[in-house]
């Protein structure tokens, strides 16, 4: 049980920080759009990456650094585009949080964006594949319990974030609050994009 708790605690601590993926999940939760599938895609993706890390894929990433380079620049480009779209929305649109009245992205498009936030983010590889994969070796032969704890942490976090965002929904019925949120999301995305290329 202690190994499971260690995996859960470390996994949760690594995804608590506000990042591009978390900001997207929060935004979908506020809009009440495809919340379940967004949370599921994020959690399952984390679960796959954690499993690969514990199974030893972290060693492969270290041996083939081009994987990390591709993710770094691809992620930076994606985040920059998303940031610009958020800024455009903040300055050119005036909308309260009324999901029924807004044009809704298709499920396919939402999943595609969600996958991009997850798989084009090199930090997720560092956290899940390399870091968790490396730490799991300390718990041999109970790496499975460690991985299970980390995977469960991802499910708990993303579903709590996605559905917990509804508590803030009344605040975002004010168009100004939504503008501020869009602007902050843009700032976060742009800062993350810069950090990806600045730390080469």
Describe what you observe in this structure.
This protein is mainly α and 200 residues long. The protein has 8 helices and no strands. It has helices at residues 2-15, 20-31, 35-63, 66-92, 107-119, 122-136, 143-164, 175-198. α2 (20-31) crosses α7 (143-164), α3 runs parallel beside α5 (107-119) and α3 (35-63) crosses α6.
Shape: globular
Tell me the structural class: mainly alpha
Report the strand count.
0
Taken as a percent bin, the fraction of beta residues is under 5%
Terminal CA distance reads 39 Å
Task: Indicate the mean pLDDT.
Answer: 80
For the largest beta-sheet, the strand count, sense and barrel status come to: none
- Spans with pLDDT under 50 lasting ≥5 residues? 98-103
How many domains, as an integer?
Answer: 1
Computed over alpha carbons, the radius of gyration is 18 Å
Helices and strands, in order, run as HHHHHHHH
Number of discrete helical segments: 8
Helix content: over 70%
């Amino acid at each position: 049980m202690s190994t499971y708790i260690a995996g859960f605690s470390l996994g949760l601590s690594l995804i608590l920080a506000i990042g591009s993926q978390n900001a997207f999940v929060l935004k979908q939760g506020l809009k009440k759009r495809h919340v379940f599938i967004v949370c599921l895609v994020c959690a399952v993706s984390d679960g796959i990456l954690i499993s690969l890390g514990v199974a030893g894929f972290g060693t492969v990433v270290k041996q083939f650094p081009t994987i990390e380079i591709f993710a770094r620049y691809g992620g930076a480009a994606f985040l920059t585009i998303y940031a610009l779209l958020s800024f455009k929305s903040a300055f050119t649109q005036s909308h309260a949080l009324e999901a029924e009245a807004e044009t809704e992205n298709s499920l396919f498009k939402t999943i595609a964006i969600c996958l991009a936030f997850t798989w084009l983010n090199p930090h997720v590889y560092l956290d899940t594949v390399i870091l968790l994969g490396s730490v799991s070796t300390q718990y041999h032969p109970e790496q499975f319990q460690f991985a299970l704890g980390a995977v469960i942490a991802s499910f708990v976090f993303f579903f709590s974030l996605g559905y917990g965002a509804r508590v803030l929904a009344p605040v975002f019925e004010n168009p100004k609050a939504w503008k501020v949120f869009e602007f902050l999301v843009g700032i976060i995305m742009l800062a993350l994009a810069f950090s990806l290329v600045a730390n080469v």
